[in-house]
TrEMBL record:
Protein name stated in the entry: Phosphotransferase
Keyword field contains Cell division: no
InterPro entries in the record: Aminoglycoside_PTrfase, Kinase-like_dom_sf
Pfam families with a match to the protein in the record: APH (PF01636)
GO molecular function: transferase activity
Keyword Membrane attributed: no
Domain annotation Aminoglycoside phosphotransferase: ranges: 23-253
Species of provenance: Gracilibacillus salitolerans
Domain of life of the native organism: Bacteria
Keywords recorded for this protein, A-Z: Transferase
Amino acid sequence: MDRIKQVLKYYYNIEVTNIQSQQGGWASLAYKVSNEKHSYFLKVYEKSRASTPKLTERIDAYVPIINWLYRNSDLKESISVLLLTTEGNYKCEDDEGVYLLYDFIEGTTIGDRVLTEKQIQQLSEIIAHLHLYGEEISVKTESIKEDFSVPFLEFFKEILNSNNEHMAIDIREIVSCYKTQINRLVRIVEKLAESLQLSDLRMALCHTDLHYWNLMESQDKLIIIDWEGLKLAPVEADLMFLMDKPYFNTFLKIYQDTHENFELNHEALHFYQGRRKLEDIGEFLEQLIFDSLSEQERMNTIDYLDEELRSISL
Ligand SMILES: Nc1ncnc2c1ncn2[C@@H]1O[C@H](COP(=O)(O)OP(=O)(O)O)[C@@H](O)[C@H]1O
Ligand SMILES: [Mg+2]
């Protein structure tokens, strides 16, 4: 906790008196830090985790675009915005972690709950609005442009083609059990990627991680948080999170008020669904192989992995 106080003082010139651990996301720790004047939300990516470099390397590329949206679009009240260090940097770090600081949003995370009609309306309007913006905006979007690359390719090749003696026996068994299915999914996603690379689908700003743990409600307003996946991409990168929802038709109607004649591209949709599965499987395996997890974390991760692997076998 002293470390957090030091980081806030040194990099943000903020003295905090209260630090409360929060339920963070999948990849980072989270704290509510406050003094008598203000509350902040501090996100900490531990350097000991295998996923941290990949998750923090994009910060400098995407934050200027979020800031642009904050200043130039109607999304100001619907997005969470990062606070800068006294030197004007988006993140800071010490030996143990990479730190990001936000204003604390007083509200609730949608998480396991369902959206109300009003929230469905708000979500549809926010996403429709976000997708209005593309590469023509006045900040550079090149570095967040979709390249249709397939994640964990080398990693999968390596673990699928070796006897994995360094792995714990239960993980090795899971991998060998699902070898064929993982290989098949990799091939399908690679093929879709090749085809999409040659297509000229319109690309727009997309959040790309639109699950309900990234939606918060505050004073009757829906706020989308966790913009670390921001990309210039075919809009199916976002719509894939909504298409299985019971309200998808309502969503689409509202969406089409802004994007007339919009039609889903099924190739892009399948690509994003498949790639997301590979990403999740790769990340779970990476955690199980490289991170030091507690027994409970390990069990949870194996359950998630099992669920994903079973879903690609259908
Ligand atoms: N600015 C904020 N104020 C209050 N709570 C927040 C804020 N940002 C995130 N949270 C809470 O912390 C959780 C994890 O944050 P998130 O940014 O999604 O991290 P991760 O990248 O690890 O998923 C969210 O589900 C939400 O409940
Ligand atoms: Mg999140």
